[in-house]
Design a protein that fits this description.
68 residues, alpha+beta, two-stranded antiparallel ribbon, 2 helices, 21% strand, binds zinc ion
Amino acid sequence: MNCYECVQSGRAQEAVAVCWLCGAAVCTEHVRSETVQVREPAQPGKVIHDQPARRLTCPVCRAAEESP
Ligand SMILES: [Zn+2]
Ligand SMILES: [Zn+2]
């Protein structure tokens, strides 16, 4: 699969990730990777996740999330 963002600008670049929001395939240049803390409601006897999760997004969804 080719990067959706690159295809938009007339290029063909192999995609390495898929945006978790819109499902667009993106290349290394266009992928936005961030780590998020997994939060769950506190429950008795439940172990809290210390390890951060990863979220991969495309530039469009990243910009939309950062817009006020
Ligand atoms: Zn790209
Ligand atoms: Zn997206």
